[in-house]
Amino acid sequence: MSTGRDIIEGLRGRLVISCQPVPDGPFDTVASVVAYARAAEASGAAGLRIEGDANVAAVVQASRLPVIGLVKRDLEDSAVRITPFLSDVIDLCEAGAAIVAVDATDRPRPVPVSELLAEIKRRGRLAMADISTEAEARAALAAGADIVGTTMSGYAGDAPPPKAPDLELVRRCARLGAPVFAEGRYNSPELAAAAIRAGADAVVVGSAITRPEHIADWFRQAVEGAARPLAPVLAFDIGGTKTLAALVQGETVFERRVMPTPADVGSKGWIAAIAGLAQGWDGRYERAAAAVTGRIDGDVWSALNPGTLAIPQGFSLTNVLGVALGTPVLAVNDAQAAAWGEYRFGAGKGRDMAFLTVSSGIGGGIVLGGRLLRGTRGIAGSLGQVPVFEPTGPVRLETLASGFGIAEAARRRGHDGDARAVFAAAHTGESWAQDTLRDAATRLAAAIAGLQAVVDPECIVIGGGVGLAEGFLELLRETLAVYPEAVVPVLAAADLGADAGIIGVADMAAAS
Ligand SMILES: CC(=O)N[C@H](C=O)[C@@H](O)[C@H](O)[C@H](O)COP(=O)(O)O
Question: Around 247, how many Cα atoms within 13 Å sit in the side-chain half-sphere?
C-alpha cells in the first residue's frame, strides 16, 4: 500500500484532473464521473479530484489513480462548502479517498479546521487544505495539513472571482516548504505550466477539462464578442502640451475636442478640466480610456521625462479620472497605445511589430503574438529611454534623436530654430541641416538595429512628426545599411497619424 509520502511524490510535477460535472447538468451522473476519470487516467494524469462519496467509491473501483475526495454542501449558516462536517470526512475515507480536501478558509464554520484535519490523519489519509490566502495556508499547515491547495482564492469574499488564476498565492505558498497544489481557473495548458514554474508541486484542473458547459460558454462569448461591433469609447490623449478627448469606435474617431493641457491648476483642477472636455457626451460611450505621456505602473501614473508633464507623485489617474467621469478608466502609455492602434488597424496590422514615434520625444511599443508588451514597470518598448554613451557620460537616445534633440544639435552648429526648420533647410541643400539630420538618424538606426536583434519583429512602424517628415524614413534606411542584414528591420510608415494613441487605447478598453 502506498504511503502518504509515495502519493505526494507520485503527484509531484504532474496534472490532477478534477472530475466535477456542473451540478444537475447532463454529465452529473456517477457513470459520467467514472467516464471522465477513466479518460483522465488514459491521458496520463497522475491524480483525480472527485466530489461526493458515491462518486469517490465508484472512481476508486474504476481507476488506479489516487483520489482527492471532497463533499460539497450549501449550508444555511456558513459559506463554507467543501467538506464541512466530520461525517463527510469519514464517508470520504470509507469510500477510498487517498487525500481528503477540506475548506480551510478563515470563515465561520460548523466544525473547526483542526478537528477535520485530525480526523483525516486519524484515518491514515492525507489532508489537503483548500485555502484563499497565505495566512490560511500557514494556519492549516500548523494544524496538520499535508498539502495546501490554492482552490479557494477568489471564492472566499463577496467580489466575483477574477478570470486569471492566483499565481502569486502559489508563489507565496511555495515558500512555506509544504506541498502546494495550484487549483482554480487554470484554464489553459500555458497557465497550468506557469503554476509549476511558480513553485506548485501539482496542478489541479477541472472546468477546462470536465465541464463542457463552461468550455462552450467561453467559446460562445469569445465568438459573439468578436462578432459584435466595438462599443464607442471616450478616449483621452493626455500629452505635455495638449489634451484631446474623442469618441472612438473601432478605427473611427467620430468626434473630438482639444485643449492645452492645463498647468498650475493642481491635480484636482487638472482632472476637472480633462473630464470637462467630455461634457455633454454622457450616454454616448460605454467605456473610457486614456493614452498618456509617461508610464503607467499598475494604477500609478508617473513621468518618464519630468520635463514633459509634471505628474504629481503616486498619482492614480485611473481612480481619480474614473471618479470624475463616473466610469472605470483604462490608462496606457501613449506610445504603447499607438503601437496597439497601428497593430490593430494600421501599418502593422496583425503582425509581430514594434512601433516608434519620433516627435518632440521618442516613444515606442511592441506587440508580439497579438499581445501588447507593457513591461513590469510599464516602459516596454520605450526606445527613447535607451541609454547612449557619450564622451560626457550616458544620455537617453531621446535627447539625441528626437525633434528636441535635432533642434538642440542644430543650435550647437549655430542655427536656432525647431526640427521643422532643420528639415526645411536640409531640403534646400544646407549641409549643416543635412548633417544634423543624418546624425540623428544614425543614432536612431543603431537603436533600431538593436531592437530588431532583441525582439526580431516582422516590421518596425515609424510614426511621429520627425519620423514621418519628408525624407526621414529614407535617411533611416540609408543609415541602417551599414548593419548586418539580420538586424536590418522592415520599416513601414505609420498609418493612423496622431490618432493612433486614442484608437489603440479605445480598442483596448472596448475589448476589456
Ligand atoms: C471554489 C470551488 O468550489 N472549487 C471546487 C473545488 O473542488 C471546484 O468547483 C473547482 O472546479 C475545482 O477547484 C477546480 O477548479 P477549476 O474548475 O477552476 O479548474
Answer: 13
Q: What is the ipTM of this complex?
A: 0.99
Beta carbons of 476 and 452 less than 8 angstroms apart: no
pTM to 2 decimal places: 0.67
Give the distance, in angstroms, between the CA of residue 237 and the centroid of all CA atoms in the same chain: 22
Tell which residue, 250, 445, 447, has the closest CA to residue 341.
250
Is the fold of 233-336 the same as that of 347-494? Answer: yes
Ligand 1 pocket, 186 CB below 6 A? yes
Q: What is the CATH number of domain 347-494?
A: 3.30.420.40
What pLDDT is recorded for position 286? 86
Q: Which three cell numbers stand for residue 497?
A: 497619424
What's the sign of the alpha-carbon dihedral 97, 201, 104, 119?
positive
Judged by phi (left if over 0) then psi (alpha if -120 to 50, else beta), residue 24 lies in: left
328 vs 334: CA distance, rounded Å = 18
Ligand 1 atom nearest 214 alpha carbon: 17
d(CA 261, CA 394): 31
DSSP 338-373: HHHHHHHHSTTTTS-EEEEEESSSEEEEEEETTEEE
CA-proximal residue: ligand 1, atom 14 (nearest): 206
The DSSP bridge partners found for residue 388 are: 395
Q: Which atom of ligand 1 is nearest to the CA of 211?
A: 17
CATH entry, 233-336, from 3.40.140.10, 3.40.50.1820, 3.30.420.40, 3.40.1180.10:
3.30.420.40
Domain ranges of the chain: 4-218, 233-336, 347-494
**What CATH number should be reported for the domain whose range is 4-218?**
3.20.20.70
Atom 1 of ligand 1, residue of closest alpha carbon? 152
281 Cα–ligand 1 center, Å: 43
Nearest CA to ligand 1 atom 11: 206
Closest by alpha carbon to 437, among 462, 474, 382, 389? Answer: 474
* Strands 362-368 and 371-373, sheet pairing: antiparallel
Residues with Cβ within 8 Å of residue 473, at least 6 apart in sequence: 462, 467, 491, 493
376 alpha carbon – ligand 1 mean position (Å): 30
Choice from 15, 16, 18 to test ligand 1 binding pocket (greatest atom count within 8 A of CB): 18
Pairing of strands 202-205, 14-18: parallel
Q: What is the mean pLDDT of residues 229-258?
A: 91
- Picking from 313, 294, 502, the residue whose alpha carbon sits closest to that of residue 378 is 294
Give the model confidence (pLDDT) of 471-493 as tens digits: 999 999 999 999 999 999 999 99
Tell me the per-residue pLDDT of 340-382, one tens digit each, with 9 for 90 and over.
999 999 999 999 999 999 998 999 999 999 999 999 888 999 9
